[in-house]
Every structure is written in structure tokens, then in C-alpha cells.
Amino acid sequence: MSGQKKNPSTITSLLQQRINKGSLRSLISSYPKIDFSSNDYLGFSSQGYLLEELKTLNNSINIGSTGSRLISGNSILFDEIEKEIAQFHHAESALIFNSGYDANLGLLSSVPQKGDLILSDELIHASLIDGIRLSFATHYKFKHNDIESLKELMARHKDSFNEIYIVVESVYSMDGDNAPLAELAKLCKDDNIHLIVDEAHAIGVFGNQGRGLCEELNMQNECFARIYTYGKAMGCHGAAIIGSEELKKFLINFSRSFIYTTAMPEHSLLAIKAAYQLILKTPEIENLRSNISYFNSHQNSSSYFIKSESAIHCKLISGNQQVQIAEEKLNQLDVFAKSIKSPTVKEGQERLRICLHSFNTKQEIDSLLSSF
């Protein structure tokens, strides 16, 4: 456009740095046919299962929500679904947020106060990190899944703070490995510490009827808060924070990403309701678990895969250029597996991130593994 005002020099400089490092991001709109990349682990979205379930619900809905939930955007439908979510996850209450990012931002920025301490795994998701950055609490990171590293921080700092919060993911989004939740729960119980667990990549994969890893380990009551995101295995959108009734009341009053945003529209709420109805009866959870087991039993143990029992599997290929070449070669085979580059992961830890699904065939898995 003629007459466009010149951009700040920092924009040009930072973009050029990304280009030089081979880490410049861009949007794509067409994908290879064989999906080993999306978070649609159960095929609820891509295979049409969720759409079919939605047809069983009342379609007389409002398109817009007209305001935030504290003004005009709340409804009986919100109340009904939040009660169903809490019951499903064996908790007192649930509060729906517009996304997992909003939920993590709202929880971590509001609950820990000045004079409190947050101890987080070094590999937690960016949304948790951003929530912590907005908090007035002090923050330290411990080594990934390293209980001794955590204990060392606790021993050094626990007498200097009012409350302590430990923040982890039950399944880590970039490595696919599980947090040592049972050990963490015992540690928190013994020292009266508050455990926060993001179950974004565990719902629909672990636990009875896909209730998550906390439920599988029967430690859901040991958590101060759990976060369930619906944009992964549930195939829709939004998230919920699960916890006590008092926590819900606090978030309604103090969580800025809940208070100052337009409420989720009813069609998105009904999609969440349909996803919970579907997860109670779907055979896709067992199909996914079968594929995970098959993948692990057929991969070459010396081929630099990070150990994982989840739907996420990562093959380490050091260097942004090298991992990009690997992605492009898979694309030529009509296989979609995404390269993850630094700075998203540490330099030298670049990888192909492979997501397994219930709808992937054994032949597709064989072809993927043989391509390596």
C-alpha cells in the first residue's frame, strides 16, 4: 500500500534474525493427507464424530453471547455444563474459559499472591509461563521431571513464603512424557503445598473413559487445581479449571482473562457438552491406546525417540535446517508430522513431533517408522 508508515527497525531486525536461524514461522492452509500432527487424538473433529453427536442436541441456540459472563453472557447452559464437567472429573466445581491459554493465564496470574512462591517444571507450556509472569509471586523453575531438583528448591525457600504452588503438566506437550504425579502429590500433601496440573494432553488418552492421568492415578483429590483443555482429544474449543467451589468463586472475582472477555457462544458450549457425551461411549480411546502400544513396540529403540506412553512422540533431529528437511521429506510421502525448532525447544533439541490418533492405521504407522 502506498504511503504505508515505516515499521519500527526492531521488527525488521528480529524477523531477519529468525530467517537467519531458520526459525521463521508462517501459516499454512493445506496439509498432507496422512495426519501425524494434529491434536485431534480421537478423531472427534476430523472424523465427524463430534458433529454427529451435536445433532442429538437442541440446535436452537444464540450465535453470539452479547457480553462477558458477569454482564450479559452467562446462561443456564453454562451452569448445566459446568456441573456436568465437575461431576465427570470428580470435583466440587468447574469454570469454563474461552481457551486453555485463557484458563492458564487467568489461574496463575490471579491466585498466587505477593509473598507466595511458584515452583514450576522447566518445560511447562507457554500459557502457564505467561500466567506466572503476570503474577506478583516469586517464581523458580526446577529441572524437568526431577523430584530432587524440586526438593532442593523447596528446602531452600519454603520457610520464606506464605503459600507454595507447584505447577506441572501431566503430559508434556513437546516431549510427550508424563510428570511424576504420584510423587508430586505425596510431596505436596506432606508439606501442605498446592499442586496445579494441566491435563490438556491427558484428557481422552489416560484414565477411565479418558478422564486424565490424575484420575488414572486416583490422585484427583490431591490437586488444588486441574486444567482440562478441549482443543485436543475433545475436538472442540475452550477449557475448564477444576477445583473447589471457593476457587471457582475466587476466579469469577479476580481472574482477569475470565472477567474481561466476551463469553463463549452457545454453539461452542454445546460442542463441549457433546464431546463429554461422546467420550463416555466412544471406542476411539481404546483404538488410540492400541496405536500407541503398536508404535512403541515397533520403533527402533536407537532412533532417538523420547520415551512416551502418550499420544505425543518426538524424534530428535538436531538443527533447525535438518529437522525442516525431515518434515519436507515426510510431506513428499503425503505424511504430516511437524518439525519443532528452536527457540520453541532448546537449541540442539529440535525434533519431529508425531501425534498418534485413533484413526491412524497400522500400515500408516509402519510407513512412518520405515521412513526414518
CATH level-1 class of the largest domain = Alpha Beta
**End-to-end Cα distance:** 46 Å
Shape: globular
In CATH, the homologous superfamily of the largest domain goes by the name Type I PLP-dependent aspartate aminotransferase-like (Major domain)
Any idea of the CATH topology of the largest domain? Answer: Aspartate Aminotransferase, domain 2
Characterize the largest beta sheet: strand count, sense, and whether it forms a barrel: 7 strands, mixed
How much beta, percentage-wise?
5-15%
Order of helices and strands: HEHHEHEHEHEHEHEEHHHHEHEEEH
Q: Level of helix content?
A: 25-40%
User: Low-confidence spans: pLDDT under 50, at least 5 residues?
Assistant: none
What's the gist of this structure?
The chain is 38% helix and 14% strand. The protein is α/β, with parallel strands linked by helices and 372 residues long.
